[in-house]
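I am still getting used to backbone structure tokens and would like to learn alongside you. Label the sequence line and the structure token line clearly, so we can match residues to local backbone shapes. Would you write everything just below, so we can both look at the same thing?
***
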Amino acid sequence: MKDTLRPGSTAVVIGMGGQFAVELLRALTGVRIIALDVKEAALAAVRHKVDYTFVSGSSDVAEQVMEAAGDYGADFVLDLVGSSATLQLAGAVVAPYGAIRVPGLTESSSSKPPSYLPRCRGERRSLAHMAGHTRTCMTSSR
């Protein structure tokens, strides 16, 4: 994960109950931070700490995030909600070789990735690390 949080990369945090996560990212990394939440008040509370804020319930939020991330996608997505909608959003905005982290998601204890983890945009194969509920998105060049 250290390689995905290098200066100049993009991190998306979904769910501003995770204001502490935003503060850690800001204090410890040089990443561009995009905050998403369904509540405008939650976004207002972190607006001065992040580079972009978007209402995650908006129909075009994935396009807004992609544009803010230079049309490449987010190198790191931290989904603090873990709903099917936010997991699908995470899969839509993560960059090739990017990482999705979903802390606290405990519905699966097998080594096989659960079906609710999204397929990544343009994904041909994926590497899932279920202990941390992560999907690292990898694409082959063609």
Remarks:
- The longest helix spans residues 19-28.
- The longest strand covers residues 94-101.
- Residues 108-113, 123-134 have pLDDT under 50 and may be disordered.
- The two ends are 26 Å apart (CA to CA).
